[in-house]
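Troubleshooting: if your tokenizer reports a length mismatch, compare your output against this known-good record of 150 residues.
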Amino acid sequence: MKFTEFDISILPFNKIETTDWHGILKLRSEIFVLEQACVFVDPDVQDKSSLHLFVKSGHEIVGYARAFKDEIWHIGRIISDRNHREKGMASALLNSSIQHITSKEKDPIIELSAQVYLSDYYTSKSFKPSGKMYLEDGIPHLRMVYSPND
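Known-good structure output:
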């Protein structure tokens, strides 16, 4: 069954409940460390300055994304629990990230680091490849920039 609406929480780091933060880190570890075999320090320096978007099923975090701004906006860590995939949650998280950013800033530059196999999906969401393929944690990625008017 596909769902079109999710109850997405959007909070800065200092407003996230401890149990929710634990659930976010658990989900990120399950996806990035166990499923994708990426070994990196998580949490990282961006977490404290990020907006965190997450979906809960009961008390469990089942979907997550984050957005932060340095010179430009970045969206990343878009994930969903394996039991909640193919329901539109990743799209809802991405769309909510974009909507939140564009409500704060007119014509922002938004980028993400897309796994190459997902580049067509991100292209369908108005992201365009920028630069050459590169490896991140041994996985081919592309830098993609949001271009809604192209």
